[in-house]
Model the fold of this input.
Amino acid sequence: MPVTAAPVDKRLKILDAVIRRQHSRPDALIAVLHKAQELYGFLDAPVLWHVARALRLPPSRVYGTATFYHLFSLKPLGEHTCVVCLGTACFVKGAQTLVDAVAELVAIRPGQTTADGKVSLTVARCIGACGIAPAVVLDGTTHGHVSAGQLTARLEEWTHGS
Amino acid sequence: MDHDDLQRIAEGERAAAKSAEIRCCTSSGCRASGSKEVLSRLKAAVEANGLGDRVAAVGVGCPGLCSAGPVVQTHPDGAAFGKVTADHADGIVSALSGGSAGAVRIDPHQPFFTKQLRIVRATAGQIDPERIEAYIAAGGYEGLYRVLQRRPDEIVADVTASGLRGRGGAGYPTGLKWATVAKMPPGQKYVICNGDEGDPGAFMDRSVMEDAPHQVLEGMAIAAYAIGANQGYIYVRAEYPLAIERLQTAITQARKAGLLGRGVFQTPFEFEVEIRIGAGAFVCGEETALIASVQGLRGTPRPRPPYPAESGLWDRPTLINNVETFATIPAILRNGPAWFAAIGTATSKGTKIFSLTGKVKNAGLVEVPMGTTLREVVEQLGGGTADGKAVKAVQTGGPSGGCVPASLLDTPIDYESLASIGSIMGSGGMIVMDDADRMPEVARFFMEFCADESCGKCVPCRVGTVQLHGLLTKLVEKRATRHDLDTLIELCHLVRDTSLCGLGQSAPNPVLSTLRYFAGEYEALLQPEEFARPTRRSAVPLTVIS
Amino acid sequence: MAVVTLTIDDKPVSARAGESVLDAAKEAGIEIPTLCHLPGVSEAAACRLCLVQVEGRGRLQAACVTAAAEGMVVRTQTDTLREYRRMILELLFTEGNHVCAVCVANGNCELQTLAAELGMDHVRYPYLNPARPVDVTHKQYAIDHNRCILCTRCVRTCDEIEGAHTWDVAGRGTSSHVIADMGQPWGESVTCTSCGKCVQSCPTGALFRQGSTVAEMTKDREKLGDLVTARREKKWSV
Amino acid sequence: MERVRLATVWLGGCSGCHMSFLDLDEWLLDLAPRIELVYSPLADVKEYPEGVDVVLVEGAVANEENRQMAKVIRRRTKVVVSFGDCAVTGNVTAMRNPLGKSLEVLRTSYLLESAGTGLRLPDDREIVPVLLDKVEPLHAIVPVDHYLPGCPPSAARIKAVVEDLLAGHAPSRAAEVIRFG
Done:
């Protein structure tokens, strides 16, 4: 049965504190999922069950909500994340070639993580950095006016060594 | 906090101002190019040169010219520098006393700056968005104070008289929306600020939230007073962490100063604001989907009526306006509706911010009076294309909008004119395209976006966008025939006319508008039919102009 | 109770104030096609088959959520509406894997019946042929996602009539799918009461009784509405 | 009266539609003098002739031979009727589509992924037509004039459609004529 609780650890205590601060209100679901993902890196079944119980929500609503929003991941992400913005401004400035370059280098498609767990590649639907298109977000930091060469060089650092 | 306190803060701020300021943009765009390091080096350089008593290096909001970032400006001499690196810090400081800056100078008198009329972005690039005192010194919260001395219905009347229309895309008259919520029986009502700016290629709202968070709060508070609400929510997409951070800072500061919370300006008016963070769903920009998301649910839209004004958040009357709309409010109440209504055209009043991007020389944010032509924005403010090639089209309105061909660039920017040429004002994305951009591919790009962002609730949008994407792919890959093109147009009609919400209803717009103006590009991709086709028997017309 | 008079397809029709155009039409003997509508549960307005033309309104309106109003003039059968309904059905047929010939609901399926009624004799768009699972882990019932049209009748029935909220929709866009609890096999659901109401609510062969074979699965959808009436008004239909 | 040159074709299907056609029993005797059966699995004709008036095509387009045949039929026929669900929708024949392209389908069908079966893919491309990656309904390959769904269409519905076509007008699209499954 997947109903077993997640092991009680420090992260769970932090999550519970956030839930208490939100008075266990059902409308806090998205905020709580954000916190859970920040703490655990992704949303696995035990965490989702814990959230459902704490907010007194039907599990299918928690799962339905978690899978509706693109920023929630139910699978672990890689050690490093590369988000290529595919907003319109980036698109006309050749962002697709960036995606293709990364995909070719590490042999994964957007939404996937390399087999060694080093790199996750995702695409974003506009991060609002249109003035410096094309933009990518590498491990949470936005970079503008990025070329395919610069990007693959950085990814090679990630995949080999350091 | 009373009015005297407000003035005291403003005076204190002005008295503490140094004789010169070095203003470094710390908004998201320039931050991505290293502006935080530039700022700290500027501060160090000021100290190192012993100028601390008369020069201040401050982080400010976005001055607009994002393509030249990081941008640093000096005040009061009005010099501006672009592509500044930390190593330029000493030079810029020495330039204040006549030395050579070393950094690339930006002409502050070029049309990009002089042709703008900045009302919403009045303080952007000039004050520190993280300090409430700076906003107050610039006249902030004065509008709220004046509003609280008057009756709520007078405020609604002012907003109506100003002619302001929603800046989120549809252009619904703001005063009318306020009046509807205000007229609902007293009881729990809500104000929601829609900061889920999802149109790819648009970042006006992000910058307003980052550069002028207090202005947004002030606008919301004025609205709350006018309609009788005591609780507000700002729904911000998670992709905008700096906006969230600055709004949170602003809320804390405003509460501490007594400008939010109970007894605002020592009146019975009470207003609390909470931030709700999205999680990556374009459809949540649609107001009923946004309400569902604020309630912690899947962001699926529901049919209207009832409109949120009657039954919105938790089935209570709810006013939803977008960020730019709320940020326009304080100036209207400060300067009066007649002042605002004098700007713009007969049906579209005031100014509008656009994020000008794509193949344009000066990419960034521009705020211009309604009625300005697309040509002025693209060629004068934008400086044409970066490499001097001809402009082919301008995309406005994002995935719900259309591509305006170069031949129609003299169209004035107002809600009706843009609609008449098959595009929309939208939230303000303006993407310049040149010959390298193939219109069927652009249409496919937007359709992929819509299929990916469809919530999946109604059939025409959920499946129709996928089929449309398939047809556009077939076309782009030169496998389609005339028959497929007819099917494409027919499906566009279906999705437009039968989808449940605005996302689906407008999803075909990029296809229809490019078919209208760039039909040749589609025709050129068609393959001959191998066999004659039976006569088409569909009742759906094959027109591309609605 | 206030009564309003309106015109539907040139026929004068009276309706209770607040009643939907769909119900008012039905009482007057005018059938408007639907798939997501189910008496007894809330409206989703998602299938868009019941769209009608209302004079004076620019957009087509879903009859299930449009209140009948005094003087309203409604058309339910224009050529364009008929074409749009056919196209919507075609889209549904391309989205799943609807193979009537080998379906438990063959002969008792609302999708299949509507295709015939609306003159959909073939599908003009390419079939998407998604790879979708069949879940037979529940002791009495099963769900075949190939036949699911995402009308969410089961979700609403389980939530609003049974009160269990076992079902919900996960994912989005064309990858939307119905899930039990945390997306686990139905048989492992901790909230399901095995009441079978969802099975009765399903318009197609997506939800069925275990052991049913081709064309054997019949459903009693009226019972669901009767349950709601019984609970609300203490009136039983037997 | 000139006889209508009628053909029936059996592509990727089970021949059930043809069986249903034969269920017309004695009506076939009425039909016989009005038509000339120029091509059919029920007749020993090797090549699809030119100048066919009406053809009933059973089965989906599942392999290369089906695809080429569909084109020959279209070129040589005035009125093409998709006859039965496989021709109209792909139906049971197309149930392999969700498994993937042809190679994946073959690998699954021949249990190549199951350890220890000792099975291998047959290699007889010279004899057996190559499978298409995706099974398609007939109208995805060539334009079709009329559709007669059903698995199989009942004899009565076949009769109604054939009567209409012999009389020279388009068959009805009324609800009673359309029935999938």
Notes: The beta strands of chain A are 80-85, 112-113, 119-124, 136-138, 141-143.
